[in-house]
Amino acid sequence: MISRTVYENIRKEVLEYFSKCNIKLTKEEKEKIEVADFGLNRIRELGLQLIEYINTDRVCAKDLVLLPGQTCPEHLHPPVGDSPGKEETFRCRYGTVYLYVSGPAVENPKTTVPDDKKETFTVWNEIVLNPGEQYTIFPNTLHWFQAGSEGAVVSEFSTKSTDENDIFTDPDIERLPIVE
Amino acid sequence: MISRTVYENIRKEVLEYFSKCNIKLTKEEKEKIEVADFGLNRIRELGLQLIEYINTDRVCAKDLVLLPGQTCPEHLHPPVGDSPGKEETFRCRYGTVYLYVSGPAVENPKTTVPDDKKETFTVWNEIVLNPGEQYTIFPNTLHWFQAGSEGAVVSEFSTKSTDENDIFTDPDIERLPIVE
Ligand SMILES: [Zn+2]
Ligand SMILES: [Zn+2]
Fold it and tell me: How far apart are CA B102 and CA A92, in angstroms?
């Protein structure tokens, strides 16, 4: 649950990231920045901010903002009905993003995760994305990501988003945001 | 057909637009900017420049650059095999884009097209996109677009691109670029 005050503070920080990147939003879009704390109530550690530009039956595009050191928790996009599941390309626009996917674990990861949540991060194949670099995650692949010390802005190009179908490793997580 | 010299000049102009917009490209991407003259050999009037970030079976994302007053000729994306055809969202990042789609013709269009090509522009339902504004074009819809006097940078979020299937109104057009 995010209080209105926390939401407003973070929304303002997000708009500063967008303006640093020269990403123009309409007035209506500025009002509907999403702030997701995944129901964990520790947004600056575990959370994600975004603006969704389009989400039709076939195509979705968003720009994501991560605060310094903020982590989007581990999850995957399973097949849903006739769809093989969501496919996502993350393209770094600003800052550095440390992305972790299934595969050989890195020996010395460049990030740390909260001690009490360590067991909810199970994939440690590390991909480092700097501005202009990108990576595509196919359906049914566990992944999580964390921003470096400057925060990060990341474009996401994907098939349809259906957040309610995402499967998180942490059983405490509720994806759909609740603002009080 | 585009000569190497024309290609290099336009590539440099395109990179300036991207840097004005704070859009970061990798070194490899900077080398593979596409310059499409549609086989008409009048690139600054009728043409389009772009960088393709991703084009899988399901998702495609590009950033387009239009030079001042440059027009992307009228075309549509027909159904292909099992696919209903390409769906495109254009989001203006810089400059102004005048987009024309099927529907009621505007009385006084904000653009003009080359006199000798007038009959190849048949749809005149005008949509004006300024930075942060966007429009979605569903398959099988005729469309064309022109940049204002500052040029334009436009993000395109779409389903898979298969340029060879695009249908242009102008019978003189060849979509696949030829650089000599
Ligand atoms: Zn994901
Ligand atoms: Zn098109």
Answer: 36
Going by the DSSP 8-state scheme, the letter that residue A43 receives in this structure is T
Which of B84, B122, B123 has its CA nearest to residue B101?
B123
CA trace torsion B36, B88, A88, B153 (10° rounding): 50
> What are the pLDDT digits (tens) for A109-164?
999 999 999 999 999 999 999 999 999 999 999 999 999 999 999 999 999 999 89
Between CA B59 and CA B64, with CA B63 as vertex, the angle to 5 degrees is 120
Confidence of residue B175 (pLDDT cuts 50, 70, 90): low
Instruction: Report the b/e string of B67-92 with b at 16+ CB within 10 A.
Output: beebbbbbbbbeeeeebebbbbbbbb
CA distance A118 to A120: 5
pLDDT value of residue B1: 75
Q: Does B32 touch chain A (CB under 8 A)?
A: no
Are B24 and A132 a contacting pair at CB < 8 A?
A: yes
Looking at the complex, does the CB of residue A93 fall below 8 Å from at least one CB of chain B? yes
CB of A162 closer than 8 Å to CB of A80: yes
pLDDT at A174: 74
Residue of B30, B59, B130, B137 to mutate when probing chain A, most A C-beta within 10 A: B59
Nearest Cα residue in chain A from B158: A59
Q: Say if B16 is an interface residue toward chain A (CB within 8 Å).
A: no
CB A163 within 8 A of CB A175: yes
Residue B100 tokens, joined: 């024309």
Domains of chain B: 53-168 (2.60.120.10)
Count of pairs with CB atoms under 8 A, one residue in A, one in B = 70
Residue A136 sits at the chain B interface (C-beta within 8 Å): yes
> In angstroms, what separates the C-alpha of A53 from chain B's closest C-alpha?
8
